Amino acid sequence: MTVPERQASALNYGNVVFTGASATAGAGLILDPRTSFRVTAPGSIAGDYAYGTASFGPVISPDNFGGSVVLGTDDVGASNDGCEPLTNATAIAGNIALLDRGTCNFTIKALNAQNAGATGLLVADNVPGNPPPGLGGTDPSITIPAIRITQALGNSMKAVLPGVTVGFVIDPSELQGADDDGRPRLYMPDPVQGGSSGSHYDTALAPNALMEPAINDSLFAAVNLDITPNLLQDTGWTLNGGDATIEGCDTGIDVVDDAGIIIGANVEATSKLCLSKAPRRGAYVACMAAYKNRMRASGLLTGRQALRMMSCAIKVGKPSKQ
């Protein structure tokens, strides 16, 4: 690539992908079906667009978000920011409200849209950039779904209102956070974010991944490293393979599998931890049994794996003091 081509790629959100064979295979095992925010009409702006989700209200789905878009208005200051009760509630009722970012918290905008009868909320950013970040805030009284869209899309919608319809669609043949060939997307926002652009998987990945640029509360990194090991393997790292062992006893549990599940590594680490804390062999076995029960309850060990692990655990441990 030429320098200008690299510069263009650095801002080409959604179109730069990681082509490693292992990561592509892992994406097919891990990523959810693709969920897209779609403008369905008018044809001049129809298409799928990036969006940011809200930390409040219900989870967005095709069942709860869709319909006609109406620009919300109020009678104070910036008349489309929704920081005061909406003055066109009759038009808003039963439709998706479009409001501008700025002046007040996102939760206030959502409540004002909800009180006007909106079935959902679009918050258009007030600065250029892609992808749009999420909507922060907490308010358990908010019952309508809300998302954030780019300033550019917000302006495009306003230019052709009324007549804009939107919705969410699920395509089970494609992967969330991957391109149409199943290759995981890299995070290439516009503007460039130093230290994050090109160094992480895209924030659109679902479920969330360790290699995204932000920590997410849905990560279960104690047992699932998602497609991060796949990326490391593609770039030349050597992963610990084979079965996990407890003091030389083979448990039959993969140290790490093709989907980034590290149950075996977790077993080895837990065994060492239990050994370090147990004053006698019985306490070690009890510690491992408690661990086994937690993993079984979480569906992370099969019955056969649990039996084989405990068989190994019973053979080792500190000498009994009884």
Structure description:
- It is built from 9 helices and 10 strands.
- It is an alpha/beta fold.
- The strands form 2 sheets. The chain has an 8-stranded mixed β-sheet, with helices on both faces. It has a two-stranded antiparallel ribbon with strand order 9-10.
- It is elongated.
- The N and C termini lie far apart (71 Å).
In short:
This protein is α/β, with parallel strands linked by helices and 322 residues long. It contains 9 helices and 10 strands.
Task: Supply the helix-strand structural class.
Answer: alpha/beta
Q: Quick one: CATH class of the domain at 33-172? A: Alpha Beta
The shape is elongated
Provide mean pLDDT, rounded. Answer: 93
CATH architecture of the domain at 33-172: 3-Layer(bba) Sandwich
Order of helices and strands: HHEEEEHEHEEHEHEEHHH
Straight-line distance between termini: 71 Å
Number of helices: 9
Regions with little confidence, pLDDT below 50 for 5+ residues = none
Total beta-strand segments = 10
- Main sheet: strands, sense, barrel: 8 strands, mixed
CATH topology of the domain at 33-172: Glucose Oxidase, domain 1
Helix content: 25-40%
Radius of gyration: 25 Å
What share of residues are in beta strands?
15-25%
Output the strand order for the largest sheet. 2-1-8-4-5-6-7-3
Keywords: Glycoprotein, Signal
Protein name: PA domain-containing protein
Domain PA: 68-156
Pfam family, one: PA
